[in-house]
Fold this protein.
Amino acid sequence: MQFSSLYLAAYNLCCVVLWGRILWIALWNFDNGSAIYAEAGSVLRFAQGISVMEVLHSVSGLVNGSSLPALMQVLARLVHVFLGISVVGAEYHNNVGFFLILVTWCLADISRYLLYLTKLFNKEIAFLTLFRYNAFIVLYPAGLGLELWLQWFAFVQYKKEGNSLCFGIPLWSILCVVGFRSLYAYMFKQRGKFMHLQTADGKKAK
């Protein structure tokens, strides 16, 4: 295995462990958002912080795929984590939307990184592949809805505190909706390629 493949395998495995840890903490403390953040906050910031590497992977040609969808997704998450989750406070963390968005992100990312990892070793787990290319249909809109909900909650909190960040939230929410359309279309395009390959493989098997 080449060094680049070993690096990507280590990166994806690291991300699976990080997001798995976050999911475990969230489920274990599902009724206490403050406890979730106290235990998982630093892990979340680290996991989301290193995701900037995915943009570099794409731009450098280390992985196949468009860099624009990666950039949009990473940027949206970074803003939400570092200017929302990490700043607003206990009332935000105890909002049920905080727990739900963590679970949504974890399910989407764990399946994504596991799929990348198995592909590096030329292995395919049918359930994992099907989950990745079908679950996003629900997980991505759910994630957007929860992000918008929590952005509104943050807007109200910032406004009460007189924090000037509140004025940028409505504009950012609009940009998230606009960007989501492109990202969602990209994922359906990827799903179409996967379904086409599945159909072709099925015909060959016959």
In short: The two ends are 33 Å apart (CA to CA). The mean pLDDT is 90. The longest helix spans residues 169-205. Residues 48 and 78 are 6 Å apart (CA to CA).
